[in-house]
Q: What sequence folds into this?
């Protein structure tokens, strides 16, 4: 069970298995394009945001800018991870799954990197609405919980039951995030004088974020109503484009134009004396 | 060494190996029950805590509530990870270990998820005692170090020496946490007027947390004085029940009853103008 | 493709593969000594720093001390991970790489643990310069991005292109860190009255941190101009000694001697009433 030859073979194969996944991605034009388009757009977004933020001053405005700039940078890393085969793998679906016994290409790296990028989105939103730190902390913790249990749902192959159990726990974390966005944070934004832009970004975020669990449920990893890995991937990629780059662009443009409003609130994280 | 057939076999086997562990868990009633009881209790705790916190207002009180609510949510995810076989594996113990050469079922996911749940416990305690951010930050960093090196101790199979070296480093981090709880944080709680409840929760935490390294040392992963995986697992599960759900319940009940005291301190993270 | 025998063999081999790497390390005296010297020095540093910090009071000074103490503690864990074979592996270099097809010993654990230790260095520097939280947060996020994409670069074996793509993204994150250190943070340190020590530590950090990507580029993982794993490892180990223990020693000595200056700034994270 642990003969030295088999050991080396297994270890070597693990580390070279990336190439097999990469080949599979390259051979699927739909899938391949869904990933490269995001590398390109995220790259453009980084350059654009650096340019847009060049004149932003004041602790809170610059923190929003910093958090916003991280969004496309994390996104490039995420899509490079998928394209290089590092964060992608073939998973054998468990009994009961529509594709039971088949090996499905799982882009599990998406869930992993969302745990890094979505907190930046919430941080930017929270700072814009000038919410208290307690709320910001709880919502970001719930958001990370949502992504990590989403990752667990994607990687569980032992039974269908546990896949959906993780899915439900992930949705429970999501409800915490949604609840805060729709109640407290909206109220806080009104006090901070940022209600208008917050309203726009909130609708964008709530609507688009609802798309992710829906795609999971109908895509290849869930009920497999859509059986194409390429289509599922394009759906996620389109959501990413709007929920990340377009979101960040709108936010950053508003901050650049309304620095005074942003600076006057400044009760939360960004506040620092002698800085604005 | 990297023939394509072997590669695929190894990759496939990695991803289906979960089912083997799941079978092993299902066949061991003692082990199985030690995990399910926590899923059930954590689920009850989530519902109960949502209900108990429905009227909590004020930045700091709500931050304590938020941190407290995360404890059972992370716990459910943790135990689902163990039950689904995702964060469990058979590890071959190194030479010198009492079970040397045998494959021991390691619940390494426990250590991983403690790195998420125990910071919430310390955050709640720190906010209750109104400690300064420097102390809070250092203690949580040490706590995460403790969990991560505990994970490393559990996953090291190359030599007994390194298993215990990691164990000792983990204990060194733990000493930092204990020292802060017993000295500074106690003093801070007196200033904040929360000495009584802090005293209770501190005793609960210190006594129960000391149990974890002791179980590691005497259980299957350490000296194997207790050779049953099921018994070792039950010991951890019982500690979790008291150190997590009972702890969180006592804390939350007190916060709900003493909101005024909590709000008046509020010098740390939770403070936010216009929120209390 | 997933016969039960192969499954078990692969799982077992994964878990025992550590011993093979450990043997390889032990047989290479140069490599072995590069790791053990850091375990020893980090151990001495922990004891020394505990002693040096015994009289430090005041929220901000103690937060700097706490962050500083974590640096060698994380370092010990990191080097134990390498020595135990837990965070080390043989990776087959992709086509186009100078060592293409060969299995190179990759110390990927270094990049992983830098994601924990370098934020502590930046936190200590940021607190010393009394920078605003926005800047501190953005710089630490960029630093973690740098380490994680460095880890991805090291672990990518599917193609040379992606290895260097990750390398470039990692460098982009590094530019954000460098830019902040050389402009804003320097200005902040002047306002805080800590310009002199900040200047020394900044030069130490900037010069030494530039060394890491250079070593990656010329070492076995990059262009392989240096083909010895032992020499590459010693280069990293020497950088670690100066960028971590010497850095931390100088910082801590200054804080212990200039507590009054540190306490009077205190506008950032460390501030807490009734604590200094």
A:
């Amino acid at each position: 069970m642990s003969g030295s030859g088999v050991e080396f073979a297994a270890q070597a194969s693990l580390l070279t298995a990336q190439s097999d996944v990469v080949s599979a991605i390259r051979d699927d034009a739909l899938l391949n394009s869904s990933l490269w388009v995001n590398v390109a757009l995220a790259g453009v977004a980084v350059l654009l945001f650096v340019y847009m933020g060049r004149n932003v001053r004041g602790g809170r405005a610059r923190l929003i800018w910093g958090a916003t700039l991280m969004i496309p940078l994390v996104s490039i890393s995420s899509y490079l991870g998928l394209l290089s085969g590092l964060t992608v793998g073939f998973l054998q679906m468990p009994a009961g799954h529509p594709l039971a016994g088949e090996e499905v290409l799982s882009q599990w790296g998406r869930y992993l990197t969302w745990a890094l990028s979505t907190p930046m989105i919430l941080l930017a939103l929270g700072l814009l609405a000038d919410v208290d730190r307690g709320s910001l902390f709880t919502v970001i913790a719930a958001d990370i919980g949502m992504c990590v249990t989403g990752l667990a749902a994607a990687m569980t192959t032992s039974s269908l039951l546990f896949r959906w159990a993780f899915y439900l726990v992930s949705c429970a974390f999501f409800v915490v995030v949604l609840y805060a966005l729709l109640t407290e944070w909206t109220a806080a934004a009104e006090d901070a004088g940022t209600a208008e832009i917050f309203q726009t970004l909130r609708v964008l975020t709530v609507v688009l974020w609802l798309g992710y669990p829906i795609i999971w449920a109908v895509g290849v990893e869930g009920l497999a109503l859509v059986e194409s890995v390429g289509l599922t991937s394009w759906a996620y990629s389109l959501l990413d484009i709007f929920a990340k780059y377009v979101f960040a662009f709108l936010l950053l443009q508003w901050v650049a134009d309304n620095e005074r409003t942003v600076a006057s609130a400044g009760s939360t994280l960004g506040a620092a004396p002698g800085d604005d």
Remarks:
- The radius of gyration of chain C is 21 Å.
- Residues 229-257 of chain C form the longest helix (29 residues).
- Chain C has ten helices and two strands.
